[in-house]
Amino acid sequence: MSFPRSAHLLAGVLATAGVLHFAKPKPFDSIVPKQLPGSARTWTYVSGVAELGCAAAVAHPKWRRFGGLLTAGLFVGVFPANVQMALDYRRKPLPQRAIAYGRLPLQLPLIAWAWRVRSSATK
């Protein structure tokens, strides 16, 4: 995949996820680690804003290097929510467990994708 196309696709994925945090926040609320202070909804909105900000940075050529770095950090930062989801879904039906468990290794290619976008951006 060519670099600009890859960056724009990543920006689209991030923007879609960011909008979903506001349009349908309940599923995101449910995976916020309970150890975090404050309300789950606040964390859902904060992470939605972060995804939208990363999307904008990755989409703009001038900010793409920084956006790729921020996005890789975001993907690392949301990993605890994926762990929380896997723990919470241990006793759910198999299809739901498979989705929850499948999210864990998915973070690695997402981090790598963001890093490739960062590394391929012009300085």
Describe this structure in words.
The protein has one domain. The mean pLDDT is about 90. The longest helix has 27 residues, at about 95-120. Helix content is about 80%, strand content about 0%. The chain is built from 6 helices and no strands. It is mainly α and about 120 residues long.
Notable characteristics:
123 residues, mainly alpha
Broad shape: globular
Enumerate how many helices there are, as a single number.
Answer: 6
Query: What does the main sheet amount to?
Result: none
Secondary structural class = mainly alpha
**Strand proportion:** under 5%
Whole-Å distance between the termini?
A: 20 Å
Mean pLDDT over all positions: 92
Question: Can you tell me the number of structural domains?
Answer: 1
Helix content, binned percent? over 70%
How many beta-strand segments? 0
Low-confidence stretches: none
Strand/helix succession? HHHHHH
- In angstroms, what is the radius of gyration? 15 Å
Organism: Saccharopolyspora gloriosae
Protein name: Putative membrane protein
What can be said about this structure in brief?
This protein is mainly alpha-helical and 123 residues long.
Chain-wise SSE layout:
Elements: H1 3-23, H2 26-29, H3 40-59, H4 64-77, H5 79-88, H6 94-120
Helix pairs in contact: 1-3, 1-6, 3-4, 4-6, 5-6
